[in-house]
């Protein structure tokens, strides 16, 4: 199904005046706008009806509740279907280390609102948390992959396959120098306290973590783009913080012009062999200059060839454009985070500095081929926006995801074994099933799947391949799930619940919270405890 961009009503200047009608049943055709009264529209997941423009930018219709309206932009997508291995044995997707979706839905729940359905991306919820994966000890190997199996908590007749990747974590004192461009939105929409004031405090946290060999440039955009601070050693912290403190909000939003200037300044200060990155901090409200999403993506795709990555930090609510922030970070070989508090800014810019700034592998793709003699069905949970065609796996020209230093990546498949009671799709009438051939032993019955990973070095153009067979013996072993297994399953269940919960059966929020508590583990940073609180809050919101 094609993916449609979902733009907020605050970007009316992008669209033509004529709207294409809905499909006749008041169903959205890929364009959604949330309202501040999500809890009053629980049957629609908090999504107001809207329509898509043909052949151009898209615009939301007026929400059902005109008072205190909130028009936010999310990319519409459908949950992955169950696949029969006999018909589609191969699953391919790009990895994703973004965490913006989780922080954003936390904001909704903390405000007593049910998050819009399309604000929920399960993979970003999973990858918000770290897991105890074994990582490489040598920088020559950028990451290690591992996998595990457990019974599915919401379906005793299926199993969960967890694939985990852990990136190499260098000593931060040994990291290369950084050339960072802060691209800061100072338009009128950024006046609220959860926008520019929080943004300024967040950037100052990052400044404190940088050294004399690092360089910082500050570019702003409102009615037009401007240079606030030329490339400056991060050792001049007082000067940099003074420049940040002097920023004020006002005017329209020439975001495209700001991006162009930011790339120009990043190229001027380029550090060969160093970290070269733009940090775009905004609510995503672009309404002047280059505003069409296609133009922006083309511009960023061309600019990334110079070795300069672009990451996005989202702020605020009401007119927040999640769709734009996620997409341009993906195109820019960066990552996307949403900042709902200074604590979250610290997590992204201080505690996870290496992963946020330093790419250790790019264009990372995962492909799993399931053995039809062992596995009958599978379903990838999340990663809908990252799905790739099978042939894309070997195509080095196809863009994919990046892994930062120390990052962990998690993916979950729900699988059903041949002959089990967990099957949900009827077999085809006119095809011979793999276990009915009568031609001797099935091919490689000792393996239930082949895990393949493809990646490039940060400055490379040719990918490398890693292949790992997954033994069928795992499927027969009786073992207690690890704390990480339980917690990842709880996060996946909660994400599915917020998206409608069609695959969860009778597995409810109380059971999700109990599963998360069983998987809390040491939880030194307290993020897992916070997740449990959110599940309990969602119970109150849903009721």
Give keywords.
globular, Rossmann fold, alpha+beta, 12 helices, Immunoglobulin-like, disordered N terminus, six-stranded mixed beta sheet, 543 residues
Proportion of residues in extended strands: 15-25%
According to CATH, the homologous superfamily of the largest domain is Gamma-adaptin ear (GAE) domain
Helix content: 10-25%
The largest sheet is: 6 strands, mixed
Backbone shape: globular
Structural class: alpha+beta
- Please count the beta strands (DSSP E, at least 2 residues each): 19
Give the N-to-C terminal Cα separation.
33 Å
Oligomer: single chain
- Please tell me the overall pLDDT: 84
Number of helices: 12
Order of the strands making up the biggest sheet: 10-9-8-11-12-13
Radius of gyration: 23 Å
Question: In the CATH hierarchy, what is the architecture of the largest domain at level 2?
Answer: Sandwich
Tell me the count of domains: 3
CATH topology of the largest domain: Immunoglobulin-like
CATH class of the largest domain: Mainly Beta
Unreliable segments (pLDDT under 50, ≥5 consecutive)? 1-32, 35-69
């Amino acid at each position: 199904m094609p993916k449609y961009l979902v733009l907020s009503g605050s970007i009316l200047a992008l669209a033509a005046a004529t709207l294409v009608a809905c499909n006749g049943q008041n169903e959205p055709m890929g364009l959604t706008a949330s309202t501040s009264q999500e809890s009053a529209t629980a049957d629609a997941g908090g999504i107001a009806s809207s329509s898509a423009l043909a052949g151009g930018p898209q615009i939301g219709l007026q929400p059902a509740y005109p008072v205190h309206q909130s028009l936010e932009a999310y990319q519409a997508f459908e949950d992955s279907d169950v696949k029969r291995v006999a018909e589609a044995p191969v699953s391919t997707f790009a990895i994703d280390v973004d965490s913006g979706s989780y922080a954003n839905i936390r904001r909704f729940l903390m405000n007593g609102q049910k998050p819009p359905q399309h604000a929920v991306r399960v993979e970003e919820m999973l990858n918000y948390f770290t897991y105890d994966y074994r990582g490489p000890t040598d920088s020559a190997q950028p990451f290690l992959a591992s996998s595990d199996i457990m019974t599915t908590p919401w379906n005793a007749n299926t199993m969960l396959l967890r694939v985990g990747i852990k990136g190499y974590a260098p000593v931060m004192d040994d990291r290369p120098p950084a050339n960072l461009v802060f691209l800061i939105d100072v338009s009128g929409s950024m006046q609220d306290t959860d926008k520019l004031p929080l943004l300024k405090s967040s950037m100052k946290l990052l400044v404190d973590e940088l050294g004399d060999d690092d360089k910082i440039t500050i570019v702003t955009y409102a009615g037009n783009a401007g240079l606030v601070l030329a490339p400056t050693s991060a050792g001049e912290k007082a000067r940099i913080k003074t420049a940040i403190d002097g920023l004020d909000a006002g005017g329209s939003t020439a975001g495209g012009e700001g991006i162009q200037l930011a790339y120009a300044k990043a190229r001027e200060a380029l550090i060969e062999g160093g970290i070269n990155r733009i940090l775009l901090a905004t609510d995503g409200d672009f309404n002047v200059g280059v505003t069409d999403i296609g133009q922006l993506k083309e511009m960023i795709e061309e600019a990334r060839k110079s070795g300069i990555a672009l990451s996005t930090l989202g702020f605020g609510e009401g007119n927040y454009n999640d769709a734009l922030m996620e997409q341009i970070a993906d195109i820019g070989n960066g990552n996307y985070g949403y900042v709902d508090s200074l604590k979250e800014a610290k997590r992204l810019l201080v505690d996870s500095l290496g992963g946020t700034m330093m790419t250790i592998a790019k264009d990372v793709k995962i492909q799993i081929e399931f053995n039809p003699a062992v596995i009958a069905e599978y379903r990838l949970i999340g990663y809908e926006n990252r799905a790739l065609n099978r042939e894309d796996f070997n195509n080095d020209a196809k863009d994919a995801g990046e892994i930062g230093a120390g990052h962990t990546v998690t993916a979950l498949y729900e699988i059903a074994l041949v002959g089990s009671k967990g099957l949900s799709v009827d077999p085809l009438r006119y095809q011979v099933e793999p276990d009915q051939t009568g031609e001797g032993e099935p091919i490689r019955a000792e393996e239930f799947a082949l895990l393949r990973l493809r990646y490039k070095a940060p400055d490379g153009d040719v990918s490398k391949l890693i292949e790992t067979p997954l033994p069928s013996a795992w499927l027969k072993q009786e073992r207690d799930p690890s704390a990480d297994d339980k917690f990842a399953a709880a996060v996946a269940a909660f994400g599915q619940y917020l998206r409608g919960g069609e695959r969860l059966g009778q597995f409810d929020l109380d059971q999700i919270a109990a599963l998360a508590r069983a998987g809390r583990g040491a939880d030194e940073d307290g993020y897992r405890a916070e997740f449990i609180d959110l599940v309990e809050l969602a119970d109150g919101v849903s009721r």
